[in-house]
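This entry is retained here.
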Amino acid sequence: MQRLSLEYIVREPAVGTAGARPPLLLLLHGIGSNEQDLFGLTPALDPRFLIASLRAPITLQGGAYAWYHTQFLPTGYIIDEAAAEQSRQGLLKFIDEIVKARGVDEQRVFLMGFSQGCIMSIAAALTAPRKFAGIVGMSGRLLPGVESKIAPKQELRGLPILLVHGKADSVIPVSYGHQMRDDLQGLGVDVTYIEYPMAHNISRETLDDVARWLTARLDDKHDWRASGAQ
C-alpha cells in the first residue's frame, strides 16, 4: 500500500454495499490522542463508508498526538496558529492523496472530528468546501486565524454540517458551540446543531444521531454543490 503523508488506519466498506467507488469518511481525533481513539466508533457507522482514522502530525509523547499545540489557561486558549495552518494545509493535501490512492468517490468525502479534530475539520471545510459532501463536528470551536482564509459565501451556501456539543463540557464550553453555530449560519452553511447532557465526550445518544445523519447524507441523491457556485 502506498505510504501517504499522514498515518492512518482503515475500516473497509462492507462487501457488496460500497460499489466500485465507496464514500470516504475521515476521522480526526483530539489533542493528546491518536488514530485508535475514534476508530472504536466505526461499527456504529454506515457500512458503505471506507473509514480512515487519521493520526495528527505533531507528536506530544508516546501515543499522543496533536494537530497543533494548545495552552489551556483560565482566561482561554493560546494556540500555535502557524502549526494549525500547516496542519490544515496538510489535511487538505492528505485528502487528495487518499482519494487517489484508495479509489474512493471524490464527490462523497466526509469529515468527522472530535475536539481539536472538530476544529480542524471545520477549518478544512470552510476553506475548501467543494471537497466535502458533509462534516460532523463534535465538541469543538472555530479555529482562530482561519477567518481570512474562509471561502466566499456563495461557495459555502448549503454545505451540510452537523455540530454536537455537551452542555456540561468544561474543556471547550458549550458557549463555543453556540458561537460556531451562529457563525456558520451567518456564512450560509446548512447547520444542524444538537446539545446533549454530557461533558467533553461522545455519548451513545450522540453517536446514534451522528450515524443517522451520515446515513441520511449518503441516501440523499442531491449534491449540495449542484445548487451552489460552480
Q: What stands out?
A: The CA atoms of residues 22 and 104 lie 5 Å apart. The chain has six helices and eleven strands. The chain has a mean pLDDT of 94. The chain has one domain: 8-220.
